[in-house]
Design a protein that fits this description.
alpha/beta, 7-stranded mixed β-sheet, 5-stranded parallel β-sheet
Length: 371
């Protein structure tokens, strides 16, 4: 699984007495990190755009306009998705301290690049600290290769971050979903629209636990794109499409963004991940529009899923939906086939049923690899 790295701290120059192998930047430690990580299979997650503070009439510094709560919330959501945080404490400001403390409190692996000596207060928030950037890189590579967090532990950590936002609406101007871009080599879009709580026809519904973590983890394992709800949805836009005109649907942020990704990345198949109650059969029920049951993408998906789940002794079945179903309406709007996987809750409690969760995600990884 590719590891993700978040960078925090001002983009200062690397000191002249610090070399970095054959790469010797003069004015950007972030560029050096990106160049280095590219060669070692680590993905750099870009944080906030650095902006300079301004002064008010009283001579006191305040944050630039674009460093708002909205931008900070975005940064926190990026940290939630990462494995490591590398913080520069050369000419530090709030873009250094806040991400470092937040990441530490979230259980991330925090690494600090700083002039020595390091304050014991700051040291308490870092798992490792280095005076030379090259040494920090060597440590990062060693940890990413030999001490990777298991996909189950990563899923639990990610799910906990979703739970914190599940009962909240996003701040003004922010979306209520996250997008995992992947490498877009696969023309597949994974979606978990109910990873957080949502309103539907006037009723508040609880989140379908671990559908978001499962989707995010699968996306990372196979480098395919995914869209996951990240706050409480004011309306269940994905499943109220059959009550909307095409114009209204296209103005829904989730649907409009999904449609844009479908067109931009030439998506051929959308896979929606849902959960189903304990009272239902203990299997994976795959809903398919009856009109598209013979579509090439659907046939390929069915064959691969049946094969991979049978090998892992996971029961699966297919249910065909009529042309008036929400699924059929979605297909008509997006213009491509959609399948909905309803997963029994017994597979979605990794804290107590690690084997079930691991078995399921391994099967999904194998399925996505072959699509």
């Amino acid at each position: 699984m590719k590891q993700n790295l978040y960078l925090s701290g001002p983009d200062t120059a690397i000191p002249h007495n610090q070399t970095l192998g054959d790469y010797k930047p003069t004015n950007s430690w972030r560029s050096a990190v990106f160049h280095f990580c590219l060669k070692h299979g680590i993905q750099v997650i870009n944080p906030l755009t650095e902006v300079k503070s301004k002064l008010n009439t009283n001579g006191k510094s305040f944050l630039a306009e674009d460093r708002t709560r909205k931008e900070v919330e975005k940064a926190f959501s990026l940290i939630d998705r990462c494995d490591f945080v590398l913080t520069s404490l050369y000419s530090p400001d709030e873009s250094s301290w806040i991400p470092l403390v937040y990441a530490h409190n979230k259980g991330k692996h925090t690494i600090v690049w700083t002039p020595f000596p390091l304050s014991p207060w700051l040291a308490s928030y870092s798992k490792a600290s280095f005076e030379r950037l090259e040494s920090a890189f060597e440590y990062l590579i060693s940890k990413s290769q030999h001490d990777q967090k298991s996909i189950i532990d990563w899923s639990i950590q990610y799910e906990n971050s979703l739970k914190e936002k599940s009962g909240k609406f996003p701040i003004e101007g922010e979306t209520d979903f996250q997008y995992f871009p992947g490498e877009q080599k696969k023309h597949i879009l994974l979606m978990a629209p109910h990873a957080t709580s949502y309103w539907h026809l006037g009723s508040l519904n609880e989140a379908e636990n671990y559908t978001g973590a499962l989707t995010a983890a699968t996306s990372r394992l196979v480098d395919c794109q995914a869209i996951i709800s990240s706050y409480c949805n004011a309306e269940d836009s994905l499943y109220t499409l059959n009550n909307l005109s095409s114009f209204k649907a296209s103005t829904s942020p989730l649907i409009a963004f999904s449609q844009k990704m479908v067109e931009l990345n030439k998506v051929k198949l959308i896979i929606v991940v849902r959960s189903k109650p304990w009272s239902e059969s203990r299997n994976l029920t795959v809903n398919i529009n009856s009109l598209n049951s013979d579509h090439a993408s659907i046939n390929q998906f069915k064959q691969i899923l049946e094969h991979k789940t049978s090998i892992r002794q996971i029961e699966s079945c297919f249910k065909f939906m009529d042309e008036e179903s929400a699924l059929a309406k979605l297909e008509k709007f997006f213009g491509i086939p959609i399948v909905e996987i309803n997963i029994h809750k017994s597979f979605l409690i990794p804290e107590m049923q690690r084997a079930n969760y691991n078995n399921l995600i391994s099967a999904l990884e194998e399925i996505m690899d072959e699509l």
